[in-house]
Structure prediction request, 419 residues.
Amino acid sequence: MAIFPLLLLVAGAAQAQPHPLQELIDAARTDSPRLRGMIDAGLPGLKGRDGVAVWGQDFLFAVESLAQASVSIDKQPPLPMKRIAGSSYWYLLKTLRLGTTHNYSYTSQGKVLGTYDVAGYNPDSYPLPGVARGKLSAQATLKSKIYPGMSANYWIYVNPGVDPSRPAPLMVWQDGETIVGNQDLLRLRLQIVSDNLVHKKIIPPMVHVLISPGEGGEATGTRMRSIQYDTVSDRYGRYLLEEVLPEVSKQHKLRPDAYSRAIAGASSGAICALNAAWYFPEQFSRVLSHIGSYAAIQWHPEKGQDGGYIVSHRVRREAKKNLRVWMSDGNDDIENQAGSWPLNNIQLANALKLKGYDFHFRFGESAHAIAQGALDLPESLAWLWRDYSEAKTSQSYEMEDEERAKPLFRVKIANREAW
Prediction:
């Protein structure tokens, strides 16, 4: 991924001058000769997936293509994009509604270059005046024994207010490489959001561990992501508790109580997060699940290994655990041979509902993208850490009265005639 140096200057001085994302969009608005260099170095995924920068209601769509490119926004007719002179980059600046997600699809000569969703971010997803910014560590690499032959990169982000002399709350994020540098600015914006919420005293200052999937080991190819994330077992939880967190603890004091620990992820990272908390509820009690892959990706009946679809059934059948869970998904999520992401998320939400869990399920229109998770992040983090007190080490989570009064989730067919 190319790194746009200006985008990394978010702290301190960034509040005294235009934010680098704002400068990028202003360059597009004025057709500045600087635009080529800024896009060339600044937007990851210009083959079609993540090539959107957002500042307020301004959405800068950008893609790389040798021929004329177009973009369809919210499934409307394609709009022609403008070429940056002397380059293969095409762009379009649009004003779009906030507080929702927007779908986009790039095409060229009848071929789809990429389709994804982007968030119309909420105010807490922007740097607020007077808010101190946390510190991101350099990349570190860990070699695993639990996954022999595998190594994984990780980063540590520490919110302002963490006292290095005292144990701090902890939040572990899967797919950590997407929460550093430009990727975080163009996707989740965890660093900005968490700092803002800490400043407002909505969540406690904490240590965030951003861990990438491993490479090497037993994977076919190089990436271990699916084996680590989609396998329903205690193995990944042991990996975190026996290998990752002990390394982090060499640099930062961490609270050991599950009350002060959360774990989060998207897609396969979401089922991974829930599994870790399910097998180790005495270590993690707060779970953030976006577009969870509760499907049969790592279903291996020849090994007696269930797929992710079993999670909702286990929630229904097994004893209730002391977990607080925020889930989100959208009706345009994946349908393939491994299962139905929307239906499996609804299954899990109903299982949590039936068992009386403290949970919240946000079901929107989004496809398989982090956009809805990014849109909701200020709200989901506030909900997940609500009523937290550093004086406590435990809490019995109970379903909110508002949720208790609601019925089970039900499916309505939207794209076929009703009987």
The longest strand covers residues 358-367. Confidence is low (pLDDT under 50) at residues 1-15. The CA atoms of residues 214 and 405 lie 43 Å apart. The radius of gyration is 21 Å.
